[in-house]
Amino acid sequence: MKIEILGTGCAKCKALEEAAKQAVAQSGKFAQVEKVDDIQKIMSYGVMSTPGLVIDGKVVSTGKLLGVAEIVELIKAP
Amino acid sequence: MWQELSGTIVLDWLGFSGRMGDALHFFLYDTIKIWFLLLAIIFAVSFLRTWFNTEKVRAYLAGKREFTGNVLAALFGIITPFCTCSAIPLFLGFLQARIPIGVTFSFLISAPLNNEIAIAMLFSLFGWKITAIYIGFGLAVAILGGWLIGRFNVEKYVLISVPPLSGDIELPTYVPSFKERVNEAWGNTRDIFRKIYLWVMVGVGVGAWFHGYVPAEFIAQYAGGDAWYAVPVAVLMGIPMYASAAGVMPLVEVLTQKGMLLGSALSFMMAVTALSLPEAIILKQILHIRLIALFFAIIGAGIMGIGFLFNTIL
Fold first, then answer.
1. Three-point CA angle B178, A4, A35, nearest 5°
2. B76-80, B161-165, B293-297 — which is least confidently predicted?
3. Whole-model pTM above 0.90?
4. B138 pLDDT band (50/70/90 cuts)?
5. Integer angstrom CA distances of residue B19 from B204, B208, B219, B228
6. Which residue, of A18, A53, B75, B242, is most buried by count of CB atoms within 10 Å of its CB?
């Protein structure tokens, strides 16, 4: 499983990355968390409000700082 | 009711009187009133906003005709959440969907101008009429300013290539429940309030001091009564103050009570929100300085026009 955080360095983006890492640890799944800073790549996902959360290439949330519990649920969802 | 209660607390219970009592009464009354209204209004706006996001707005604006597009983009700017930090993805995202650059600017002007903090502060300090005037003229500046920028062939000043959207973009389809919307709105309200409550106190505090100690003649002389330069000076002063809009507005209220003309005050507040230096610096990464200068010049001129208009007719 691959989790990507889309963001160009706003405070919320860093917080979301942190929350995602914690969520992965809590979920017990094997997943890599990657921060995507490249604006062209962010655009290719069609995301305009950062931070965006992408799980396995699918955009699941934009413009929101999700809580750890919310991300755990998104990770566990099939 | 709260006016009398805060008066009783300061004047009777704490035993202050005279100018000191006057200033303290004003401070206590205004701070608590503004905090309360801020919480209520920011919550209401945040709650409404859970139905909108920029991705939906873009899908809706794509393919609209130019002038209609400008009007719709400016209107969406009121209700869509906007953060200076996502100005770049937003700008490029609109261009990617081949929304005209002028329409994109209409949105980019309207969104920060009609941000929830400015609207909540205006409403709590000046009442709904001034708030409506601010929003109405703000929309006019956004629509006409964006349209005008679109007339200048500025596409060449976008410094990175923007390939068109390939295929259909999958929007997140998840629909939050009522409770989740309330939670999200409350979370947002708390974040914003934490950021600005001290600024409000400082602003009201300095305002209370003005209110109690600085005579009206002094303000009229230096903050400009009807001198011609009052409006341009107000606009220039507003540019670097984006971060502290919450602290600046209580001051403006006191200044208007003491003789600053409403047009100058409106120009100043619009300059604080619409002409933001941090936003310009962020956009500099993808836009040529000439386009940013044009953007500032057109909006600045529009805002000054509104100031002069009001100073003349009111």
1. 120
2. B161-165
3. no
4. very high
5. 16, 10, 18, 33
6. A53
Tens-place pLDDT, residues A49-72 = 788 889 888 888 887 788 888 888
Assembly ipTM: 0.74
What single-letter amino acid sits at B105? F
Distance CA B256, CA B244 (A): 19
Q: Which of B52, B58, B82, B85 to mutate against chain A (most A CBs within 10 Å)?
A: B85
Q: Write out the catalytic residue numbers of A.
A: 10, 13
- Does the beta-carbon distance from B89 to A10 stay under 8 Å? no
Q: Which domain holds residue A60?
A: 2-76
Q: Looking at residues B160-167, what average pLDDT do you find?
A: 73
DSSP H helical ranges for chain B: 2-7, 18-49, 54-61, 66-79, 87-96, 101-113, 116-150, 178-213, 216-222, 230-238, 245-257, 262-274, 277-283, 289-313
CATH code of residue A10? 3.40.30.10
B172–A61 C-beta distance less than 8 A: yes
